[in-house]
């Protein structure tokens, strides 16, 4: 396992659509393991998609407090409810924003052995899944926000600080 460098906002790869995994190989295992090491090294962070380490493949790892979850070719098949919540991103360090997300999701995915799984999630885990699956489609949480806040003190960013980040937004319709 090896910690990977996380791609930062402004790198065009973050806007690419990730390709599905056709065959689960030793290389896929290595990437998943490296991604897990990377999120744990980033202490306190919830998830990472492969695109964030420069690999445009449909792979996600998350630990939202209940242990490591790996998603391969995930698809949200059901959403319910709606709530606003704070989100940040390893590719956009230092800031957070309020994002409206479904409170419940059902996700179809493969596990690392290639078996199809249906995962159901509520609350923070549902938010994490939606955030990371968005990455696989070139969507960033800043595409949904109007205002950004400092991640450490919660104060609203001044326009001079927020505008360069928000300039990277792409309008998203649900």
Automatic annotation (TrEMBL):
SUPFAM superfamilies xref list: Peptide deformylase (SSF56420)
Enzyme active site: 132
Cofactor(s) needed for function: Fe(2+)
Keyword Transmembrane in annotation: no
Cofactor note: Binds 1 Fe(2+) ion.
Enzyme Commission code: 3.5.1.88
InterPro entries in alphabetical order: Peptide_deformylase (IPR023635), Peptide_deformylase_sf (IPR036821)
One protein family per Pfam: Pep_deformylase
An MF annotation (GO) of this entry: peptide deformylase activity
Keyword Hydrolase carried by entry: yes
Name of the top EC class for this enzyme: hydrolase
Reactions catalysed, as given in the entry: N-terminal N-formyl-L-methionyl-[peptide] + H2O = N-terminal L-methionyl-[peptide] + formate
Binding-site list for Fe cation: 89, 131, 135
UniProt keyword list: Hydrolase, Iron, Metal-binding, Protein biosynthesis
Family of this protein: Belongs to the polypeptide deformylase family.
Function text: Removes the formyl group from the N-terminal Met of newly synthesized proteins. Requires at least a dipeptide for an efficient rate of reaction. N-terminal L-methionine is a prerequisite for activity but the enzyme has broad specificity at other positions.
Protein name per the record: Peptide deformylase
Species of origin: Brevibacillus ruminantium
Lineage, uppermost ranks: Bacteria, Bacillati, Bacillota, Bacilli, Bacillales
Gene: def
């Amino acid at each position: 396992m090896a910690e990977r460098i996380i791609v930062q906002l402004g790198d065009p790869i973050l806007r690419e659509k990730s390709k599905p995994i056709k065959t689960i190989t030793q290389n896929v295992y290595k990437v998943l393991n490296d991604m897990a090491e990377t999120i744990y090294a980033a202490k306190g962070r919830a998830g990472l998609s492969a695109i964030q380490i420069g690999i445009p493949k449909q792979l996600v790892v998350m630990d939202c407090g209940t242990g490591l979850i790996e998603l391969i070719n995930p698809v949200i098949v059901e959403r319910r409810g709606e709530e606003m919540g704070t989100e940040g991103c390893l590719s956009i360090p230092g800031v957070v924003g309020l994002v409206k997300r479904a409170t419940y999701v059902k996700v179809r995915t493969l596990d690392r052995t290639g078996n199809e799984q249906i995962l159901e999630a509520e609350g923070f885990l549902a938010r994490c899944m939606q955030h990371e699956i968005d990455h696989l489609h070139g969507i960033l949480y800043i595409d949904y926000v109007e205002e950004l806040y400092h991640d450490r003190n919660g104060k609203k960013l001044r326009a001079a600080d927020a505008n360069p980040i928000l300039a990277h937004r792409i309008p998203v319709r649900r």
